[in-house]
Amino acid sequence: xxxxxxxxxxxxxxxxxxxxxxxxxxxxxxxxDGAAKTAVLKTxxxxxDLTPFSLPVELINTKWIGNNEVSxxxxxxxxxxxxxxxxMYNTEINNALIQVSAFDHIKxxxxxxxxxxxxxxxxxxxxxxxxxxxxxxxxxLLHVSVILASGKIPKYGNYFIGTETSDYIFSADWxxxxxxxxxxxxxxxxxxxxxxxxxxxxxxxxxxxNDQKFGKSYRWP
Length: 221
Fold this sequence. Notes:
The protein is mostly beta strands and 221 residues long. It has helices at residues 77-82, 211-214, and strands at residues 6-13, 19-26, 37-42, 59-66, 69-75, 91-93, 96-103, 111-119, 125-135, 138-139, 143-148, 160-161, 171-174, 180-184, 205-209. The chain is elongated. The protein has 2 domains: 3-103, no CATH class; 111-214. Strand 8 (111-119) and strand 9 (125-135) form a beta hairpin. 5% of the residues lie in helices and 42% in strands.
């Protein structure tokens, strides 16, 4: 690894300027860019090895909230998809206290917007697609849930939760066998499997690729 592998994204001084946060990544050549990390350093530090002073890669949105105190957050969506417990632990790096909290994509002021609601052929279940936002033009992740007919919609999708980059699913319905159909395109269809909720209902799905209709899509219309 050389100095050329190191790319600094940004830095932020503590209020008394005695410490500094450096957000960086390591370019991994043919493997692409490494995940961004944040190092907590004293401004007098001259070390080139940031590893001992770096926060776990899961911690994001780091900022100073005191001279020796940093706020950091954990994105809970990957944990929800994987069915893992959401546990937050404060930690300490370079004598600075790291206050850890959950990053919730759904804000208190957000409204739920139902994009699609389809009843299964046997009339027992509903397939619901929805998003949250301040208004219909400013919405976030795609959530897809399977619920009992006229049942309560869970806060987060219980079958699929999309990303900020793409919804990957651009329409959805049922077929006659009570199998879920997800409509996508050649480019995005392969990614759907990575954003399914691990503990989802045992209801089969299949993917239909339609480039003619969704070839240029990245959001559910």
